[in-house]
Structures are given as structure tokens and as C-alpha cells.
Specification:
Distance between the termini: 71 Å
Shape: globular
Largest sheet: 8 strands, mixed
EC number: 3.13.2.1
Number of domains: 2
CATH topology of the largest domain: Rossmann fold
Helix content: 40-55%
Subcellular location: Cytoplasm
Number of strands: 15
Keywords: Cytoplasm, Hydrolase, NAD, One-carbon metabolism
Number of helices: 17
Family: Belongs to the adenosylhomocysteinase family.
CATH architecture of the largest domain: 3-Layer(aba) Sandwich
Pathway: Amino-acid biosynthesis; L-homocysteine biosynthesis; L-homocysteine from S-adenosyl-L-homocysteine: step 1/1
Strand order of the largest sheet: 9-8-7-10-11-14-13-12
Length: about 425
């Protein structure tokens, strides 16, 4: 979709694919907003109260229609925000264009950007000298600590919405490098119960289906990892008629998967029976050389964890004599053994590389947490401990209350008698 937009009329700093894509992006952002009533209510309050006035924010997120609504809410709150992509394949170029043209928000993100461009954009985000970093995987925070320690005194705090990012932040704190508060948005119940389980479950399969157009019913789908994301993927795959196998390293999670009715086995065994493999562990090289060597001819491999390290593509390249795109975002590796392995989205987040990411109604709660976490950091500046800090319970509860209200669902409240009983220790049998 093109328009008569003249690039020279856009004064806000940006580095995007094509500013003339803005009208389509605007339409899609507004469509997503319909499914984000909680964030919309927060944005309206922010516009009236301006709780982030004078605050510089660097946001490193997937540049999607849902993220756009978060960026708009932060600007409404008075923040001076810049946005970069948290994954080279997750940017929606029309959305980036609309944020720049229609909302005057600096965006540095291009779908398919190479690693050098991605890291340059991280540096550009830090050149904004942020007070708050809204992170997705902690790349910006890590770069700050490693290469821009002089900026740390200006940092009020960060917010992090991925399991992978929190793993890095906890390791950073253990090493004495995280000297400011990092709000664990990912651990909010209204985030991981819903975003990770229902969002990842649906959007992962959406990406695989869009990329391959295969029937899932009757296929053996191997889900690596049975955390909240893995539970969602396994549940949705079974709902589509797949025969689901789970691999795990955590004995408690493995028992849970078995009790939920899934077959559980090591990846060495699963590699021999799987038709489709989906990694959601947040760890490195979950699928590696020995697994590729024993997979069926034509096995499909996809990743829905944050980074593209879960699948050892270096080993796969070494085993292969050629690789070619057979569909959009779908590469077929011809192994020297004569078999082939198909990789979707270059091993990056399949739901964003090959589809549109999580549905807006799920991201409504996740980004409501992000917005309120930023407000919480400003309100409590100087009073929070260094390290990973849980999001306040009352914030979590308020987001759930607003979501229920938007859904037209009512729930019970405690009677005075029940409140008294819960606060008493003398009543019993």
C-alpha cells in the first residue's frame, strides 16, 4: 500500500524500511487496539496524569501492532521513547512506519536486518541515554552494563518480559553487575499464565501452518520444554489432532507433562519419531548434531524460544551439502546422508518470523504490565533494591480486574464473615 507521503517531511529520527507503508500500519495498529481494552484504559489515564513526563525510555521489543499500542501509551504518559526490534525477523515494517509517521515515535527496526544492524540499533537505543529500559531478552541491558557503564547512574530501572531475559538478569546480579532494579514483568501472573501459555500456544502453530501449510492432525509433534510456553504449545497441538511428545530436563515438569497425558522421553529418542520439532526452553542447542542425524527425512524444526540458539544451525549446516528456500521463511537443508531437514524462520521465533505474533487480546495484559511497571519504577525511584524485583501483586490483580471487566465477567467478593475467618486462627473444627 503506497501513499504520497514525502520522507523529507518526517523529522523524527528513524531507520525503517519504507515510510509509505504507514497507512497500512495505522490501520493494523487500530485493529489491534480493539482487542486491548486494558492498555487502552491505562493509556487514557496516562494521557491525563502524565506519570512519565520527562522520562527517556528505550524499548527493545518485537515491533508489532501490539507493541505499537504500548509505545503510544508510553508517549501519552509523557515519555520520550525510542523503539528498536528485539529480534531481526520480528519487525512488522508497516507498523514501524506508522509509529514514525503518525505518532512521532523514533523507531530503528527493519524486518530481516542483519546482526550488525541489530547491534547498531541497540547502540542507538542507548545513545538515547534512557532512564528506563523496556527489554525483551535483556540485550539492551547487557550492552549497557558491558559497554556503557557510565550511563548506569542515570538508570532508574528496567522491565523484562521474557524468561530468557530474567535468566540473564539473575546471572548478572549474581556476578554483581546488576546494580539497579529490574522489574520481572514476565513473572506477573497476568503475563506468563496467559501470554506464555495461550499466546505462544496459538501463535507458534499459526507460524508453522503459515510457513508450511501442513496438516497437524496425525503428526508427531515434539515439544522441547514444558514450562508455560511448552504447556501452551503442547495443549494447542493436541487440540489440532497431533500426537504430542514432550522432552524435559526438569523432573517435576516431566511428571506434569506425563500426568497431562503427553508422552515424555529424551530428545535422543524423540528425534527418531518426530515429524515436527518445536523448542521452547530458553536454552542453547536443545536440538543438535546427533538429533539431526537420526531425524526422519523431511522433519520440520522450529523455535519459539527467544533466541535462535536453541537449534544448532551451525551443526546442521556442517551436516548439509546445500540449503534453499522452498517457501517463505522455510528452508530445506539437504543432508550429505541423503535426508532433508526443514527449518522455519531461520531458527528464530517462528510465531513472529512467519506470522504476526501473539493475539492482541493476550498482549493486552502483558503490555499493561509493562506500562504500569514503568510507572512503578518512576514512583519508587531510589527506593527499590538492585536486582530482579517482582511486579507488585496489586498491579497484577488490577490488570486482571480490568480484563474481566472488559470481558463482561463478574466474580464473587468475600463477605465480612469470610474476611474475618481468613484473618483468624481461633476458628476451626
Amino acid at each position: 500500500m503506497s501513499t504520497t507521503i514525502a520522507p523529507e517531511t518526517v523529522t523524527v529520527k528513524h531507520e525503517i524500511k519504507d515510510i509509505t507503508l504507514a497507512p497500512l500500519g495505522k490501520q493494523r495498529i487500530e485493529w489491534a487496539s480493539r482487542e486491548m481494552p486494558v492498555l487502552r484504559q491505562i493509556r487514557d489515564r496516562f494521557a491525563a496524569e502524565k506519570p512519565l513526563a520527562g522520562i527517556r525510555i528505550a524499548a527493545c521489543c518485537h515491533v508489532t501492532t501490539e507493541t505499537a499500542n504500548l509505545a503510544i501509551a508510553l508517549k501519552a504518559a509523557g515519555a520520550d521513547a525510542v523503539l528498536i526490534a528485539s529480534n531481526p525477523l520480528s519487525t512488522q515494517d508497516d507498523v514501524a512506519a506508522s509509529l514514525v509517521y503518525d505518532h512521532g515515535i523514533s523507531v530503528f527496526a527493519i524486518k530481516g536486518e542483519d546482526n550488525a544492524t541489530y547491534h547498531r540499533h541497540v547502540e542507538m537505543a542507548l545513545a538515547h541515554r534512557p532512564h528506563i529500559i523496556v527489554d525483551d531478552g535483556s540485550d539492551v541491558t547487557t550492552t549497557l552494563v558491558l559497554h556503557h557503564a557510565d550511563q548506569i547512574p542515570e538508570i532508574i530501572g528496567t522491565t523484562e518480559e521474557t524468561t530468557t531475559g530474567l535468566v540473564r538478569l539473575n546471572a548478572m546480579f549474581k556476578d554483581g553487575k546488576l546494580t539497579f532494579p529490574a522489574i520481572a514483568v514476565n513473572d506477573a501472573e497476568t503475563k506468563h499464565f496467559f501470554d506464555n501459555r495461550y499466546g505462544t500456544g496459538q501463535s507458534t502453530l499459526d507460524g508453522i501452518i503459515r510457513a508450511t501449510n501442513i496438516l497437524l492432525a496425525g503428526k508427531v509433534i515434539v515439544v522441547a520444554g514444558y514450562g508455560w510456553c511448552g504447556k501452551g504449545v503442547a495443549l494447542r497441538a493436541r487440540g489440532m489432532g497431533a500426537n504430542v511428545v514432550v522432552t524435559e530436563i526438569n523432573p517435576v515438569a516431566a511428571i506434569e507433562a506425563a500426568m497431562d497425558g503427553f508422552r515424555v522421553m529424551p530428545m535422543d529418542e524423540a528425534a527418531k519419531v518426530g515429524d515436527i520439532f518445536i523448542t521452547v526452553t530458553g536454552n542453547k542447542h536443545v536440538i543438535r548434531r546427533e538429533h539431526f542425524e537420526t531425524m526422519k527425512d523431511g522433519a520440520i524444526v522450529a523455535n519459539s524460544g527467544h533466541f535462535d540458539l536453541e537449534i544448532d544451525l551451525v551443526a546442521l549446516n556442517d551436516l548439509s551439502e546445500s540449503a534453499s528456500f522452498v517457501r517463505n521463511f522455510t528452508q530445506e537443508y539437504q543432508l550429505k546422508s541423503g535426508k532433508s531437514v526443514i527449518v522455519i524462520g531461520e531458527g528464530r521465533l517462528v510465531n513472529l518470523a512467519a506470522a504476526e505474533g501473539h493475539p492482541a487480546s493476550v498482549m493486552d495484559m502483558s503490555f499493561a504490565n509493562q506500562a504500569l511497571a514503568c510507572e512503578f519504577l518512576v514512583k519508587n525511584k531510589g527506593n527499590l533494591p538492585a536486582g530482579v524485583v517482582p511486579i507488585p501483586k496489586d498491579v497484577d490483580q488490577e490488570i486482571a480486574r480490568l480484563k474481566l471487566q472488559a470481558m463482561g465477567i463478574k466474580i464473587d467478593t468475600l463477605t465480612p464473615e469470610q474476611v474475618h475467618y481468613l484473618n483468624s486462627w481461633t476458628e476451626g473444627t
